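Note on ligand handling. Small-molecule inputs were canonicalized before submission; formal charges were left as drawn, and no protonation-state enumeration was performed. Where a ligand contained multiple stereocentres, the stereochemistry in the source SMILES was retained. For S-adenosylmethionine, this procedure yielded the string shown in the input block below.
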Amino acid sequence: MLRKKGMKVINSKFEGIYWLKKGKRKFLVTKNLVPGFRSCNEEIVYVNGREYRVWDPYRSKASAAIHKKVKEFPVKEGDLILYLGVASGTTASYLSDIIGEEGVIYGVDFSASALLPLIQIARKRENIVPLLADARTPSRYINFVEEVDVVYCDVAQPNPTSIVSTNSNLFLKESGYVLLAIKASSIDISKKPKEVYLEEEKKLKETGFEIIDSVNLVPYHKKHAFLLLKRK
Amino acid sequence: MKAYLTVSPLGVLAVNEKKEIILVKKLKGDINQVTDKFISFLEKRTLTELNNALEELLDMGYREINIEEREPVKVKEEIKGVIKYSIPNKAGLLFRRYFTALSVEKFGFRNKKEARRRIREVSIRVTVYGIKKDRSRKDLSIIQAIHVLDDLEKMLNSLFLRIKEWYSLYFPELFDILESQELIIKLISKFKKPEKINPQTLKEEFNLPSEIINKIASSINETVGAKLQERDSEVIEELIQEWLSLKKCYDAVRGYIEEEMPKVAPNTSSLTGALIAARLISSAGGLESLAKLPSSTIQLLGAEKALFRFIRGKGTPPKHGVIYQYPLIRKSNKKVRGKLARKLANKIAIAARIDMFSGGRGEGKLQEKFVREIKNIVKEERNESNKQQI
Ligand SMILES: C[S@@+](CC[C@H](N)C(=O)[O-])C[C@H]1O[C@@H](n2cnc3c(N)ncnc32)[C@H](O)[C@@H]1O
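Structure output:
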């Protein structure tokens, strides 16, 4: 656990996300929605009677994107999020802190073993709805999902554009946002990561997305990029 | 008149062409009953409230009912023609957009929180059910069994090696004469000390040919081994009992795989034999994953280590992994091995897909065809080399 002495929490550029300053070092943190409960073996810090969870950029691509100065992070209190590739909910648990009790995360993953730990988290975090399904066949979870403010996609699949666009058409509200993590090697190992990102961006534009920002996640996640898109 | 209908854990909602709500059916019962209903809707495609809704819509004069589902639901034969499916449809779009208002005003929840709690509880239960079902998948047990089998094999080999080294102090010649680990172990267990080995018993109980018996008998007289003391013999016997019990375990696991594989993947098993099929499934991470692999990858399953070594610039590219254990490939001439491995991998890809996706039983046919093709390839190869010699 980090020592309390000399620590200070300051607002980040984004709502519900803070920097914890300790001497020269700073850590991204969120307020724990469920005090006393650790969702993913994260570091917990107490400052002024509040409990904060350290959001490790090496473990979460969203945190890495914020560290790499993504222009906007469009997740705020009360938001509804469709999360494709939620896995065991590491990143989702931080989004769950940000959106609070009024928000909802619909967390889809097709791997039963990946989803298993998320069930425990969802039992504590009442804003997470776990769904065991393939993001390529939304008919399997359409019965559960409301219209959402944000689609978050991190599935490491060869065709993220098609997954994101099908799901956005069904679930994303007009002028909603998409956060998309791209893994170059899942799309084409023979090409350089930068080429892969550019090609995918082109496809996304053709599909009707505006690309607000694109950040390279090196050194936190090699060969990964993080895109912020808006539905036109 | 057209109606559009959507189903959720709250219930059934239908709208008309103008997106006006024409029907609402709340799912009845407590959370357990609702969950059970919903699971049976997702799996068996039937739901009481849905059937009631369809009847009412027909009574109201709707002659085309569009349901927001991909897989058809079960309905009476006479209304099948009335029902269409599309994703999304007007009812679903309305429901998802105005969830908050609709859940309170139409479905009678106290507030949106209560309604969302319903959705979440059903989703957690449905997901737990799905995870449980996934974990009971037979191919996952097969993968565990293969891991255990490999471990047991290593343990048996290393224990045998220890026993062999120890017993070689007293009768090293035995290990030159006999090869089978099990036979050697049983023999030592039976006679304990070399000088007690009895040709008569070797013949009657072990069914050994007289030539071998004579060799053993003469080695006993000429052995360079030391005399085995009672105390040593006792400890060695303990090790032997351990080996035998591991072997029993090994046989049980192997028997399990041979019995279960024809149920898990009948076509793949009959093509390659249960053990190789099980190893392929294990390397791929499951039957479904195997069924989705291209044959070029199947050919190399189990050779991952060699492949990575090659990518890092060491060694030669591997030509075959697990499928190399296939007897006809292992025994074949090096020149044709790659070709055979490719052929077999092709056939495995087909078999695994049938096993996974159609569950059909083309059993045996693929194998016959493969064996025929192999023989042809081998024959061709022989002709080729004959020609060259001439
Ligand atoms: C890189 S992990 C996601 C990690 C997670 N986003 C986090 O930061 O905590 C990718 C996940 O996507 C899932 N996945 C891949 N393809 C999928 C698909 N077609 N549908 C649903 N989930 C998928 C995998 O099971 C895996 O759990």
